[in-house]
């Protein structure tokens, strides 16, 4: 009984969706002249963005979130009193030994 009720609700929902999707308001359409104005404004804004100040550029030199890779046997961490700071990230399949502070 529940599966029949679910099938009826699903078919009703899909038919309503198909009927509503076919209707489109004519008031929302733009004329070709308005479309050309919008495209020209977008092109000008993009040109200003690309040719604008060099201060807005994203630096690609060094990101703080990227940690360099270490080979096996290299020093991967440094002890700062009670804390341990990471120098680099060990390769896949290896880990940083917190006692020797080297990749193994």
Molecular structure report:
This protein has 104 residues and is of the alpha+beta class. The chain has helices at 2-22, 32-51, and strands at 69-70, 77-80, 83-86, 89-90, 96-97, 102-103. The strands form 3 sheets. Strands 1-4 form a two-stranded parallel sheet. Strands 2-3 form a two-stranded antiparallel sheet. A two-stranded antiparallel sheet has the order 5-6. The protein is flat. The mean pLDDT is 78.
Keyword list:
alpha+beta; 2 helices; two-stranded parallel ribbon; 104 residues
Helical stretch tally? 2
What strand order characterises the main sheet?
A: 1-4
| Shape estimate | flat
Note the beta-strand portion.
Answer: 15-25%
Largest sheet: 2 strands, parallel
What is the multimeric organization of the chains shown? single chain
Question: How many strands?
Answer: 6
Helix content: 25-40%
* Separation of the first and last Cα atoms: 63 Å
Low-confidence runs of at least 5 consecutive residues: none
Summarize the helix and strand pattern as letters.
Answer: HHEEEEEE
Average pLDDT, all residues: 78
The assigned structural class equals alpha+beta
Q: Gyration radius, to the nearest Å? A: 31 Å
């Amino acid at each position: 009984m529940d599966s029949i009720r679910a099938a009826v609700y699903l078919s009703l929902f899909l038919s309503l969706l198909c009927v509503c999707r076919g209707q489109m308001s004519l008031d929302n359409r733009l004329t070709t002249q308005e479309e050309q104005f919008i495209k020209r404004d977008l092109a000008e804004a993009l040109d200003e963005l690309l040719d604008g100040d060099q201060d807005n550029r994203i630096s690609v030199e060094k990101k703080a979130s990227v940690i360099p890779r270490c080979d096996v046997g290299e020093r991967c961490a440094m002890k700062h009193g009670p804390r341990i700071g990471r120098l680099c990230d060990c390769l896949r399949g290896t880990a940083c030994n917190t006692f020797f502070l080297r990749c193994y």
